[in-house]
Amino acid sequence: MGRPWPRRGYGRATDVVAAVAGPWNDLQAILATARKDSGPVETWQATAMWGASALAPEDPSRMAVLIAGVCLADSSSPDPASHAAAMLRIGADVAAQRKARPPADYLAQAGAELAAAGVLADPLFFIAQVRTHLHEEGHGEAPSPTTP
């Protein structure tokens, strides 16, 4: 009897990437369409935060990563870093109500997931921009591990 893995359609790197990329790319498409057709994308994005947080109800850290990912995912904004910083304010409220950790503390993990999904080309640079906006706006974001 052979090994059960890899089975057809399972265990391939492309399957893993597709499974990770799908939801993030879908969210990006929804937000771009909302921005173009129906106005306040923030409402859509906030709703997505609630939905994402429901995916990990027993894991406050994972919940924070998912919320942070939703905050970072809108590349259709004219100023994505500023928009992401503004969304992190909303994300912090969602996280507090859901008993999750602060999403701003999980930007690196969220950025890595979005990069793996092909949503962020340069997550380190983008997150540095977002952190700059957070620092300038004084949102009490935890300093980056590389910040003295």
Task: Provide structural commentary.
It is a single chain. The protein has 148 residues and is an all-alpha fold. It has one domain (13-137). The protein contains six helices and no strands. Helix 3 crosses helix 5. The longest helix has 25 residues, at 13-37. It is globular. The model is unreliable at 1-20 and 139-148 (pLDDT under 50).
Helix/strand layout:
Layout: H1 13-37, H2 41-53, H3 60-72, H4 80-98, H5 107-116, H6 123-137
Helix pairs in contact: 1-2, 2-3, 2-4, 3-4, 3-5, 4-6, 5-6
Strand fraction equals under 5%
Mean pLDDT: 79
Distance N terminus to C terminus?
57 Å
**Structural class by sheet pairing and helices:** mainly alpha
Strand runs, count = 0
Which range best describes the helical content: under 10%, 10-25%, 25-40%, 40-55%, 55-70% or over 70%? 55-70%
**CA gyration radius, whole angstroms:** 16 Å
Annotation keywords:
148 residues; mainly alpha; 64% helix; 0% strand; globular; disordered C terminus
Summarize the structure.
With 148 residues, the protein is mainly α.
